Amino acid sequence: MWQPLLWAQQPDTADQGVKLIIKPHICVAPRGESSCISWIDVFWESDQATDLCLYVSEQDQSLKCWQQQLAGSHRHHVTLINNLDFWLASIQNNTLLARSTVKFAALQPHRKHNRRRNALPWSFQNP
To answer: What's the gap between Cα 76 and its chain centre?
Structure first.
């Protein structure tokens, strides 16, 4: 089975003491396909125990919430056709604590070259 091309991501965090790491950071659809199917691994850690929830741009409700935790993780299966945002928000006041994006990319189909094949340099042609 073909696996999409994946890269790990550098954290993109707000200045709240919470780090959010999403893997993969980029999901590349196979050549000729318009979507990328992948598991997204979400990891977060905080300097202090906190109450927060994980959200994703494709859903209205939180994916998962944690109370009085220093770290957490979640695995989410997606079919990407566009970039996908993940973020952590405080349970108490819905303040954005950290945000990160999985970027979608699609390989372009091969172009057929309609050029005439050049004669080889050692070919002999009759006049």
So the answer is: 11
